[in-house]
Amino acid sequence: MTRTVFAAALGALTVLVATTAIATPSNLAVAIADSHRTDADRALDATRKPLDLMTFAGIKRGQTVVDVFPGPYFDRLFGDVVGPEGKVLMFIPTEAVAVHDEPSTPDGSQPFADLPNVTTITAPINSFSVPVPADVIWFRQNYHDLHDKFMGPADVPAFNAAVFKALKPGGVFIVIDHYAPDGSGLADTDTTHRIDAEEVKKEVTAAGFVFDGQSNVLRKPADPRTALVFDKSIRGHTDQFVFKFRKPK
Predict the structure, then answer these.
(1) What is the DSSP code (8-state) at residue 112?
(2) pLDDT tens sequence across 132-141
(3) Which of 115, 1, 18, 117 is CA-nearest to residue 65?
(4) Within a 10 A sphere around the Cβ of 166, how many other Cβ atoms?
């Protein structure tokens, strides 16, 4: 797995979206500048690019955002951005809980005392569902794990179909993961923890999604795409794709 899960954690046409050209809603910048954010989170901003990524995803006040394999860094930001009128649902797969020593946030709990709009859902990955239709479903750095043994492996077509069902018409599915070598398919998901970007496009669009562009904000051309993503020589500097898939209206 490429990051801690817990809160204590095809179209043939490729559309390139320059995130710097998209108008940035002011509440995104306000959330990032919030004085309640920890110094540890602020130290990660330079590499995680939260302003660019949330702008690309189109996260706005009043929306419902679902984070699959969640982590507190982004979920606190999402909670601030969507505000009390919105919801953030942290979906923690029980399969991931089983392989970690850290305690998981209990199902239905609110892990952040100052953000009661953030709630956890703990369930098997093949039972993915949410109680209300979502505007954005976010899956960062762990999509490749769906194919790995500790996840079952998951029924990937069924999972993507469930994501499609969970979104409102016009809603978006954001997938961020580490590039594997082009044409490698699924060969590296359980070794270097990378995945062929075209394989992701093929799998997600098979569920009915339209590929709606990508951001290059996390691209690192110097990454040879062959090293384990945890290797000290590359960790934090892997070449990552950021894809947006949209559910047709």
Answers:
(1) -
(2) 999 999 999 9
(3) 117
(4) 22
